[in-house]
Design a protein that fits this description.
Blueprint (H helix, E strand, L loop, with lengths): L4 E6 L4 H11 L3 E7 L3 H11 L3 E3 L2 H7 L4 E4 L7 H9 L3 E4 L7 H14 L3 E3 L7 H11 L6 E7 L6 H20 L2 E10 L2 E2 L6 E2 H4 L8 E2 L3 E8 L4 E6 L11 E6 L3 E5 L8 E4 L14 E2 L10 H15 L7 H19 L5 E2 L8 H7 L1
Parallel strand pairs: 1-2, 1-4, 2-3, 4-5, 5-6, 7-13
Antiparallel strand pairs: 7-14, 8-9, 8-12, 8-18, 10-11, 12-13, 14-15, 15-16, 16-17
Helix pairs in contact: 4-5, 5-10, 7-10
């Protein structure tokens, strides 16, 4: 590390508190400025972390605080403006997921990073989860033969519409770590026991008033299939079980000679298992799953790895993990489910040609 990075934060509530703790604890950063539209929120965080520079307007903060990096931790509807404004000033950005509320905004954010040369990462921290990184290394070494299928696994506890935006992009990002670039999607969305239609489209806060404001959503259950480059398949489903089960959250990677299972909510020291055969067999045989030692890939908290890799990207010109482009792909995988469902479940090619939100198009039509 060649310098201490001056960091600011936009959005002091919710996930903002998590980022403040991390930035405050990392010696690579000096937390110098905070911004929130609510004076009480910015004052509470400023007092807790002894940050004197407090703003209600992010443009003013960017102009005055001499930042190297800003974390944008607002709700999804509030991502686009502060991200583009920061990138336009050459300030690198860590942005909460999902990247935006539609692909038009996401494209604008990625383009802003390309124009300025500043680095842009989406906080999909499981991109660098130790289990994911070790599994990638094992796949590269041929431990499970050729990859055939990547299965995304959700926590449940949300209706599918909200799950797409709040956890679905995390799952899609983990799938991208093994599938590569997605080429097509086929998806089906149900509202209770019927195929969802335009009358089921609503704002995320209408579907779940206590959840985040992440734009238009639809449906209670959904399933999606993907085709990735090289003939790898992907699948994920959102079943709307009432109870959340964090232990279910992650990805399965099925190969010609074995399987890997990552459970991202488990302790980072023990969240990867290997089955040295392609099919699981009877339930009594599940004991054949072997836990994988992760000590050789490093066991720090994934969000810490994200920030340290972002510094590395700034200093070397490389792309950070879960870059703006990768975050856009994870989001586009969710939008493609809606687009495919609207078209009767047929395969839709990726990237989507029309960048407007599929539900906005359907509602307006």
């Amino acid at each position: 590390m060649s310098k201490t990075y001056r960091a600011g934060l936009v959005g002091c509530g919710g996930m903002g508190s998590h980022h403040l703790r991390v930035l405050n604890d990392l010696p690579e950063f000096e937390l110098v400025a905070l911004c929130d539209i609510f004076p009480n929120a910015v004052d509470k965080s400023g007092d807790e972390y002894s940050v004197e520079a407090r703003y209600l307007d992010f443009n003013q903060m960017y102009d005055e605080a001499n930042l190297d990096l800003v974390t944008v931790a607002t709700q999804t509807r509030g991502h686009h403006a502060p991200v583009v404004a920061a990138l336009g000033r050459g300030i690198s950005v860590m942005c909460e997921k999902p990247i935006a509320i539609d692909l038009i905004e996401a494209d604008d954010m990625v383009a802003a990073a390309e124009r300025s040369g500043a680095k842009f990462a989406i906080h999909q921290q499981n991109h660098v989860n130790p289990g994911i990184r070790k599994a990638q290394a094992m796949v590269a070494e041929g431990a499970i033969g050729d990859v055939i299928l990547v299965r995304g696994r959700n926590k449940a506890g949300r209706k599918s519409g909200n799950e797409f935006m709040e956890m679905g992009t995390h799952v899609a990002d983990m799938m991208l770590c093994f599938g590569g670039t997605p080429e097509w999607c086929s998806g089906t969305v149900y509202s209770e026991d019927q195929p969802a239609g335009p009358t089921d489209i609503m704002e995320a806060k209408e579907m779940s008033p206590r959840d985040r404001d992440s734009g238009l959503v639809m449906g209670t259950r959904a399933i999606a299939h993907y085709g990735f480059q090289g003939g790898i398949w992907g699948e994920t489903h959102f079943i709307n079980y009432a109870k959340t089960m964090s232990e279910n959250y992650g990805v399965d990677v099925l190969g010609t000679e074995g399987q890997l299972a990552v459970r991202a909510s488990a302790n980072v020291t023990d969240n990867l298992w290997h089955l040295p055969r392609p099919m699981e067999g009877a339930p009594v045989q599940f004991a054949d799953w072997q836990q994988v030692d992760l000590s050789d890939v490093g066991l720090e908290e994934p969000v810490v790895t994200m920030y340290r890799r972002l510094i590395h990207a700034i200093e070397t010109g490389a792309q950070p993990p879960s870059s703006g482009e990768e975050g856009r792909w994870a989001f586009e995988m969710m939008m493609a489910i809606y687009q495919s469902h609207r078209e009767g479940g047929r395969r839709v090619e990726l990237p989507l040609v029309d960048r407007r939100h599929p539900l906005e198009q359907w509602r307006d039509a």
